[in-house]
Amino acid sequence: MTTQQTEQQYLPVDLKRELLPRHVAVICDGNGRWAKKRGLPRIMGHKRGVDALKNLLRTCKDWGIKALTAYAFSTENWKRPEEEVEFLMTLFGRVLRQELEEMIEEDVQIRFVGDLEELPVGLQKEITHAMETTRNNRTIQFNVATNYGGRLEILQACRSIADRVQKGLLQPNEIDEAIFERHLYTAGSCDPDLLIRTSGEMRISNFLLWQIAYSEIYITETLWPDFDRNEFHRALSAYQQRERRFGKV
Ligand code: FPP
């Protein structure tokens, strides 16, 4: 987490600690447009996107938020130009190597969620190493959704539950939400309280379809590389104005 905003920052006085989301999820959109606006190649947008994500992780940690989940690469993103996909895979590996030590020091538990077997083998090894090294860290959980698709996650959970039923380990009428959740990539994480999407698009894009059932959604026109601490402050202020009813009156 070598960031531009390094010193510990306290929770702004207008935010109420007891009303903070426990878990924030972000759809980091707009890296390409950010670069294009500046006449830069798209990959520069992704580089700056990583900086924005590191800063957000630091802010979440400083302000006492317990989990952050970021959409880094979707199952559909393989359809991008080959050089861009290759750049992103290399970037993920490099960021992991560079940041691991600091994540250990800062007590960050990093977890990659998604269909990880399709990723380059070298990256898979880096991911396994980082996840194993930080698995007992408790200050903040940082989930990176990589080769992630919400429908695929639900399908894979169904397959694995069906397998248990077929083996006689589970009865169909025993399948409830708690059991289903245990078969998702995100097993063990609480659901996001707040989902932020940058760059103004009004869609979910196959992200955390099961988990966001009751999440509050905040959409900003800001492009992801410009999503800084002030923007996050605004998102949290908006979140704290919301009345969460979870289907009740
Ligand atoms: C979407 O912008 C962004 C991505 C596909 C990449 C996001 C990745 C990160 C923020 C890095 C996370 C990595 C780690 C390992 C922590 P876009 O390309 O869709 O932008 P556009 O919609 O303007 O084209």
Describe the structure concisely for a colleague.
Helices cover 41% and strands 14% of the residues.
Task: List its traits.
six-stranded parallel β-sheet, alpha/beta, binds farnesyl diphosphate, Undecaprenyl pyrophosphate synthetase, 7 helices, UPP_synth-like, single chain, globular, 249 residues
Task: Describe the protein's architecture and organization.
This protein has helices at residues 31-37, 42-63, 82-105, 121-134, 150-166, 177-182, 229-241, and strands spanning 23-27, 67-74, 108-113, 140-148, 194-197, 216-219. It contains seven helices and six strands, in the order E-H-H-E-H-E-H-E-H-H-E-E-H. It has a single domain (20-149, 191-239), classed as 3-Layer(aba) Sandwich (Undecaprenyl pyrophosphate synthetase), CATH 3.40.1180.10. Helix 1 (31-37) packs across helix 2, helix 2 packs parallel to helix 3 (82-105) and helix 3 packs parallel to helix 4 (121-134). The longest helix has 24 residues, at 82-105. A six-stranded parallel beta sheet has the order 3-4-2-1-5-6, sandwiched between helices. By secondary structure, it is of the alpha/beta class. The mean pLDDT is 96. Strand 3, helix 4 (121-134) and strand 4 (140-148) form a beta-alpha-beta unit. The structure holds farnesyl diphosphate. Keywords: Magnesium, Metal-binding, Transferase. GO terms for molecular function: ditrans,polycis-polyprenyl diphosphate synthase [(2E,6E)-farnesyl diphosphate specific] activity; magnesium ion binding. InterPro entries: UPP_synth-like, UPP_synth-like_CS, UPP_synth-like_sf. Homodimer. The active site is at residues 29, 77.
